[in-house]
Description:
The chain has about 190 residues and is mainly alpha-helical. It has helices at about 10-25, 25-40, 40-45, 75-85, 115-125, 135-150, 150-160, 165-170, 175-185, and strands at about 55, 55-60, 70.
Amino acid sequence: MPEVHAVKDQDTVKLISYLLERQFSQQLADVWNIGLNLALRISDLLSIKFSDIHGDRLIIKESKTGKIANIKLNQKTLERIQRIQREHPNHIYLFQSYRNQRAKHIKPAPLSRRYICRALAMIGEELKIALGTHSMRKTRGYLLYQQTKDIGRVMKMLRHSAEETTLRYIGIEQDDIDKDFVELEI
């Protein structure tokens, strides 16, 4: 699997959402927008059930680490989730697959990771950026770091245990650190 990166500017983040909706579906734009706000791994994002949402909180057990993710939903995310639930009141999963929905004997399932990966890769190719399922999580971490310069907060949000892992994950490179030294004159 090729290395993917954080999207480092807000205009590109919005453009990706627009292109996903236009070229694929509102559902894929929702995956991108909600994924950016939750900073979960794609397997956890796609496994979210409406029953995991308790008021303004999402509580799930992460499949990779076994850690509990207890995430307060911001207003935009909450509104998107509520819209999806209104539009699909019988769905179990937040991002439920529409394939074979008429077949009564097939269990409901979320969208596939492969489908999301292909859609993001196509948009990334069009924009000439390395885009994939981890880009949502990496982008959230990068933008939070740029806003706060607090690597500890980013580590907690991503539930990482090592600072080096987080810096590498969100794409903070020596150029970024050099820029911080030059721009902050005391």
